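Researcher: First entry.
Model:
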Amino acid sequence: MKPDPRLHAYREDLADAALRGKVDALRFVQPELRQISVSIATVHAEPRMDSHTVTEALLGEQVNVLEVKDGWAFVQLLMDSYVGYLPARCLTNQVMDTTHRIAVPSTLLYVKPDIRSNPVQHVYMNSFVSAIKVEGDFARLRDHRFVWLKHLMPVGEYWDDPATVAEAFVNAPYLWGGKSVAGLDCSGLVQLAWQACGFDCPRDADMMQDGFGKPLKRDRGLKLTRNDLVFWKGHVGMMLDGVNLVHSNGYHMQAVVEPLSGAIGRIANLYGQVTGVSRVPEMYKPETNSEAAQ
């Protein structure tokens, strides 16, 4: 079986050198490290603007670039290994070490450390920035812009409850492939919530069901708890308690909280019945995985 092309950078004509011997390609290349320089970079399935969005990359994320052609970069995101195409203008080769993550759904970058100054850019949760100095209530960034200090978390510090993070995105618009408060899909909401809490969460619902968390045996005695994940074919939501589900969906065209029972009845007409339920233990945090590998 070939490696999943969503998570492995290869085509018939080009592949990451790390995949030599695992896939067939006319040419193998050593990828070059780049960094996202815009608030949100849309990652497409094909190198054209009318190709559908597969995911998004946020400010400060690092990517491996295999090819730049006709203004498009063929990339693999380092955060979750997702592969796709994004406009090359969204990248910089001036890769900076990052010190902090944006820890709120969205915030603003300013030209001065003054809330009355003109904001120049919206940035979103799980974006990365490089702070060099504290000036009053602001952090000065390496690019000489400023961000409200309380909206940052040092790299390596996290929120402690994914469901709390997900609830902060209620009413955010539904957007296929999105993963910010400006617009997100079902798996984008779940991924960003778990990433904000320090977990290595994959991008798509099927990836989560197959490899994130431990499947729970579904029987009449099963009691769902906060942060449990509920799966349908092509859809995922997160439990807030034993009754209510938070999920971004195309029916409401936004992220909502609703009783799981109501969602099951409605979604059955679109995606069929629930295909699985998972619970995520601490073992899925990156630092725990690293320790286990040593």
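Researcher: Second entry.
Model:
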Amino acid sequence: MPKTALLVVDMQNALILEHPFDEKRLVKTVAQMEDICRNKGIEVIFVRHEDNTLVPGESGFEIYSKVAPRDGEKIFNKRFNSAFRGTGLLDYLHEQGIERIIVCGMQTDFCVDATVKAGFEHGFEIIVPRGGHTTFDNRYLSGEELYHYYSYEIWNHRYAQVMSVDHIEECL
């Protein structure tokens, strides 16, 4: 079985408190995945976005309390959509021998999408939990439409496997 890590992307207070599509399901799914991974000895890694609205030291920058890291869990800060660009994450994953990444978080159409595709390009097996990502409505599509479009039209069987939490747990 490939060595696996859970990657929690941009689950920051400022984003959650803006109420994205199906935020309760997102928080529940991420918390479930964290519990499953921690119980199985699988590393949980956090990535958070830093820019002029998400500023270190401000409350909106911090990871949402219901899915926050535990002592000793890694946090990488990023300035680009991809969790890999300029963060040191790629080197860290290689150093740890990680071959498979479970990706969840926000926002589906920006940082999660970029991270899924970049992870795939870097040779990782990518799993996306159903209900484990979300986004906001934009002027073209609702958050719900974007969730379904990326999950089942863009990622699944191309860049990643989209699976239920139960199925992921069985595969670990």
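Model: Note on the second entry: The first helix runs from residue 13 to 16.
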